[in-house]
Amino acid sequence: MDYNRFKEEVLRELKEKHGDVMEKIRVTLVKKTNGVEYEGVVFRPKGAGGIVVAPVLPLDTAYKAYTRGKADAAVCAEALWKEYEQNKGNRELQQFAGNLDRWDFVKKNVYPILLLAEGNRELLSGLVSVPLLDLAVVFIIRGKISDAGCSSVKITDAMLKEYGATRQELYDAAMANMKNDGYVFENMDDLIGDILKQKGFKDTGMDMLGVKEMYGLSNSSRLYGAAGILDRKLVREFANGRNMYILPSSVHEMIFVLASDRYSVTELNRTVADINELQVAVEERLTDHCYFYDAEKDEIRMEP
């Protein structure tokens, strides 16, 4: 059967077996960054008041199992139910959900992240955001969940209104938390060039450009660490009077290289684009071009 028929069959199976304890079992469309989207199953139990936080369970994984002959629709439906049951029993996740409407909790657990502005207009329309060059700074409430790793929720304009907080208060809280998020610069040597060569790109990469010093900036969790460039003091102290090119590795990391006349912006931009194409999931990409840190002006800007 095709995907739409499979989806209907899975929903029918779930409602027949578990509809008596569920207020709703439905399929919803999840829109991620950079135009990536997927459909998933959402469960809402009867009598669940307030905010219910549980993962949207992707249907594409189940459908792949079906098309490969590994499971029929009934087995796929039961696997989705078991996954829901596992998440339902996660007390940390439910505690995190219960705190999402409390500004005192949010203030201590909000962090900035960077997204590409172009291509995310629809997503950004309902979120609290601050423009930065061709990027957007948005804000997430982050919670560490033992079994799930890390759970996060993006802050919307409606949520901020409910908190009774201003955009400036939100920004200040996020920046204060970010400074304690373990941001460091790490020497990456020729890691990116090696990756490209392994993939068969013999005429590109940092080694081909003569880049001998390369540093990655991220946080201790390696999650949304590209936001480290917002900490201008951190960048300024690292640069130590040197002009730098900044290459977006992904939403999780920025790469800094010394500015040099040995390579051009065009060559660096091509390397960024190659890395994105080969190594970075679509929803985790920032731009296909680099930025320039002007040490004298202490500013980050786009290069023509």
Helix content: 25-40%
Shape: globular
- Which oligomeric state applies? single chain
Strand content: 25-35%
Per DSSP E runs of 2 or more residues, the count of β-strands stands at 13
Largest sheet: 6 strands, antiparallel
End-to-end distance, in Å? 51 Å
Mean pLDDT: 86
How would you explain this protein's 3D organization?
With 304 residues, this protein is of the alpha+beta class. 36% of the residues lie in helices and 26% in strands. The protein is built from eleven helices and 13 strands.
What is the secondary structure topology, with strand pairs?
Blueprint: H1 3-18, E1 22-31, E2 37-45, E3 57-58, H2 59-67, H3 73-88, H4 91-98, H5 103-109, E4 110-116, H6 121-124, E5 129-132, E6 135-145, E7 149-154, H7 157-163, H8 167-178, E8 184-187, H9 191-198, E9 214-218, H10 232-239, E10 244-250, E11 253-258, H11 265-279, E12 291-294, E13 299-302
Helix pairs in contact: 1-3, 2-3
Compact description:
By secondary structure, this protein is an alpha+beta fold.
Quickly list its features.
304 residues, alpha+beta, six-stranded antiparallel beta sheet, four-stranded antiparallel beta sheet, 11 helices, 26% strand
